Amino acid sequence: MAAVNERQFIKNQEYLRQVTSLLPAISGIYTQYDVSYSSRPQGGSEKAQQSFAAIIEHTTTRKLPIAAAVANRHCRRKGCDHRQDKCRKTYSSEKSIAASERSLLNEKLNNVRTAGLITLRSVTTDASTQLAKALREYKAEKNMNFSH
Ligand SMILES: [Zn+2]
């Protein structure tokens, strides 16, 4: 996938794992989940074609990204069938880019969970009720316990 370095995220999680093993007072990682759009979805018409979602840790002063992803509805390659490695489209044209907020959250939480390196203590987001609901459902489904 374009522009996202999965290896670096794993390194960052390994670093946090070390920090928490050295400092027993820290029991779990505080994180923040944020989404940016290429242009803001607004009033009925949805202009954004891209979103960028990241989970950033707030346990150390370094504020390391521990997971990130791009949802891109648009591919500029001429004659592209959207099946090749070089294709930059990572998200279905039929799905709303606003909904990527939630699908990327689930995807990134899955990445962190399956890597198994760190335990999440909290995942804060903006005041979006949609994301609060998504987090509640994710926790229930995966039997996890973190605050948000
Ligand atoms: Zn393409």
UniProtKB/TrEMBL annotation:
Superkingdom classification of source: Eukaryota
Residue ranges constituting the Mutator-like transposase domain according to the UniProt record: 2-140
Pfam families, A to Z: Mutator
InterPro entries according to UniProt: Mutator_transp_dom
Name recorded for this polypeptide: Mutator-like transposase domain-containing protein
Lineage, top ranks: Eukaryota, Metazoa, Spiralia, Lophotrochozoa, Mollusca
